[in-house]
Amino acid sequence: MDQLSVLRTSTLQSVLEKELEKAVVSGQIAPGARVNENALAGQFGVSRGPVREALRALEAAGLVYSIPNRGFFVRRLDLMEAAHIYDVRAALFGLAGETLARNASDAVLSELDRHLAAMDEAARARDFDAYYPLNLSFHRYIIEATGNPVLANHYLDLVKQMHLFRARSLGPGGGLSVSNAEHREMVEAVARRDPAAAREAFAHHVIRAKRRLLAAEEKEKSLPRVD
To answer: Which long-range contacts (C-beta less than 8 Å, at least 24 apart) are formed by 13-18?
Structure first.
């Protein structure tokens, strides 16, 4: 295979992975649903081979799973699995905070402040639809600013798995303002160049989000059902 063919194959693979990931993470393909490889191949104008390779990449990232002779299915997380993912994320995010406190430039601190200001505005307006993507962007910026690609890859894979759970954990009970107050504690620890305080603030932020999720799930279970 010549270099141009390799490049085309690699680019197609990357595009397919991103589009399929978007469909899974957004809920367009629902948790537990079987992925229709033939329909996707037709949609993208490719054979089933590239679609299957893209799905294997999503399987490695924990977003789908395969059953022999049946195909690929979107992974459905139960609450215990979600809680375990939060615990691992807390450890990774704590490391990110410690790393930033040691290495963050003034430009990084300015960008973190800009994110905080934008989220403050959305929180005051109680605008979840505005706050949520800003929150995702803030966390992604932090992870990428560490300059540690291994940390970034592992953390972002976990975020993809927890996307729908985390959306619920920010919702009622003043969650937006509470969440951004925690963000401010994190940034202040980084600005003080205090690695231990930053590690604690960053890890506790994820653990508190886990507690909000568990509380929201418990509240949902206690509501009367209307059939």
So the answer is: 13/50, 13/53, 13/54, 13/57, 16/44, 16/46, 16/50, 16/51, 16/53, 16/54, 17/54, 17/57, 17/58
Total domain count, the chain: 2
* Domain span holding position 66: 3-74
Is 0.85 topped by the overall pTM?
A: no
| Residue 227 counted as domain residue | no
Per-residue pLDDT tens digits for 8-33: 556 777 888 888 888 887 778 888 89
Please tell me whether residues 102 and 151 are part of one structural domain: yes
CATH of the domain at 137: 1.20.120.530
